[in-house]
């Protein structure tokens, strides 16, 4: 892939992941009722919803800075693995497709960032 096309592709992937994490993080940080209830149904303490939200917002932010994209992608991978494991443990495998897609995008971004 040409350098310019690769750079554009990297930014598109970064903005896509950042947008997803930004939306997810905001709903958790503001304490959206459905988010809090979901976390509690999984057995997590109430405050964990906010912790994950702040982490998601931090990941979204790092994906917007070229020198930090690698770390943002790495953080996204960790969070998505946690989400996938949580869903599997709680027999909600029907909900695992979206986190898997985001995980694959984050792995792709990690690989692109590593080579830049």
What does this entry look like structurally?
The protein is built from 5 helices and no strands. With 116 residues, the protein is mainly alpha-helical. The two termini are 12 Å apart.
Name the descriptors.
116 residues, mainly alpha
Structure in a nutshell:
With about 120 residues, the protein is mostly helical. It has five helices and no strands. Helix 1 (about 5-30) packs antiparallel against helix 3 and helix 1 crosses helix 5 (about 95-115).
Write the element-wise H/E pattern from the N-terminal end onward: HHHHH
Measured on Cα atoms, how large is the radius of gyration? 15 Å
| Helicity level | over 70%
Domain module count: 1
Spans with pLDDT under 50 lasting ≥5 residues?
Answer: none
Say how many strands there are. Answer: 0
Mean pLDDT level: 94
Query: What percent of residues are in strands?
Result: under 5%
- Class based on secondary structure composition and strand pairing: mainly alpha
- Gross morphology: elongated
Biggest sheet architecture: none
Span between termini? 12 Å
Summarize the helices and strands and which ones pair or pack.
Blueprint: H1 3-29, H2 33-41, H3 46-62, H4 69-89, H5 97-115
Helix pairs in contact: 1-3, 1-5, 3-4, 4-5
